[in-house]
Amino acid sequence: MGERAEDLLFKTTGSKWLLPVGRLLGLPIDQVNFMSCQLFALAAAFWFRLYLSPGHASPLVRHTFATLLGIGILIFCFGWYSAHILAVVVASYFIIVKGDINNVHRYTMVTAMGYLTACHVSRVFIYNYGILSTDFSGPLMIVTQKITTLAFQLHDGTCKKSEQLASDQRLLAITARPSLIEYLSYNLNFLSVLVGPCSNYKDHIDFIEGRHISQRLKQHAAAAARNGHNGYDRTPDVSPLKAVCRKLVVCCCCLLFFFVVTRSLPITFNVNPDFVSHAPFLSRLTYAFFSIQAARPKFYFAWTLADAVNNAAGFGFRGMDGSGKPCWDLISNVNIIGIEVDFHARIFTFKYNNGLGITAELKVCYDRAPRHRLALTFILSALWHGVYPGYYFTFITAIPITMAARALRRSIRHHFLGSRGLKLGYDVVTWMATQLTICYTVMPFLLLSVDHTITYYRSMYFHVHIISVLAAVALHRKHKPTEDSKSASSSSSSAPSSSQCQPVHSNNNKKVL
To answer: Example GO molecular function term (predicted)?
Structure first.
């Protein structure tokens, strides 16, 4: 039986060239293939920026190279399973070209999300998703996000008047259907085909055609001129090399943490019968907190490496910060410091979902839902992740928690702003409460099954559920903010900090869950 379980670690529909490496390191072959492809993509990205730059190659050549290499990576990692990803991209392009432009966003979203859900269901109930074997759902999720985002931005640019759009929607609106090679390049390019991040179509086209950095420098210079400055004394150095090296150091730290700490704090021990039965509540709470903290670095590693790959190719430049240094975080998957030191559960959840790479698609839902925005956004997020019950427990639990966090912040925060000491105390307490709350909320996401989730909730006495519901009800105000104030709040929360970088629009909006 042990030999059978060991064999499953090295079972894949992708390439088996690196099987000896997997056996040597004791890692599943899929993880070895993933790591190898991402490191290869990193090297290819440097080559792409230096030798296939817009000055050396036409946009068609850059589109074609990025697409073919991306498809090659998919085939290497997933074998014939990559046909699922290619099929949904081709089908969606057919809808984009042939469909009614007034409804193309609806048709595309239903097709992409429907196919993704069908694949999730088949892997759970037909192919035994719990067994470690080739999992193509990650790239399919990224492609689904891109397909949906592009379709809604195309609808914004072709079917709506400018005054009907929010400022960020106007910036990202697409006014013409993309060509086939542009569409394939956007969805399947080697920079983001495995882990993302999801970029906006216009940003990707600017990058391929060589306008990505120059436009942002011009916007920064214009902003500086409005503030009374004369622009640049010399052309700024916007090389991504420092940003890439910094992110690779973060990757190494995360990888080291995973091998040393994460493996010693398994998530499943939270529902171990002996531990639940005999350990006191504070011990269970403490272990849950540290095991969740230890589980994050493996995600940070994958997301940060993907970010470094894009930056190495010259993609992801946001602008210059206040001190004149380049910001390479336009399409960043995750803000690690923002997540780890955040003081509010609502904002934490926004930033954590940014790390999951889903905020662009969910912003589409949040911005356009006529009512019940929060609930619909959470449901879409759970559906996008898959059909494991744990996902739905997490996002359904997050609804009353987010409502309670909003009500609590609105009701009491202003009482602590009178002095620096009170504000510091408030921040410390809310940070601790946020971390414990997120630990409770995210646990089912990692435990996955109903039985394990209920066991964990019982061991915690459902305390976060009870407290959040009581707080939301007790602090609920009959006077609801107007739609205008909601929109203003949404815009201010979703926009990146202009004091840090210029220009102000971002691809991965942190406002949405």
So the answer is: acyltransferase activity
H helix intervals, 175-322: 180-188, 201-209, 212-226, 241-260, 273-278, 281-312
Residues 6+ apart with CB under 8 A from 285: 436, 460
- Burial of 145-170, coded b for 16+ CB within 10 Å and e otherwise, reads bbbbbbbbbbbbbeeeeeeebeebbe
376, 268: one domain: yes
Sequence-distant (≥ 6) Cβ neighbours of residue 281 within 8 angstroms = 460, 461
Same domain assignment for residues 206 and 245: no
Boundary (domain end) residue, out of 192, 210, 228 = 210
The catalytic site residues sit at 353, 385
Indicate the number of domains in the chain.
2
pLDDT in tens, 79-99: 888 999 999 999 999 999 998
Q: pLDDT tens digits for 25-82?
A: 878 888 899 999 999 999 999 999 999 999 999 999 999 999 999 999 999 999 888 9
The CA-atom distances, in angstroms, between 229 and each of 220, 392, 503 are 11, 51, 16
Q: Is residue 100 part of a domain?
A: yes
Is 215 in contact with 206 (CB distance < 8 Å)? yes
Residue 284 counted as domain residue = yes
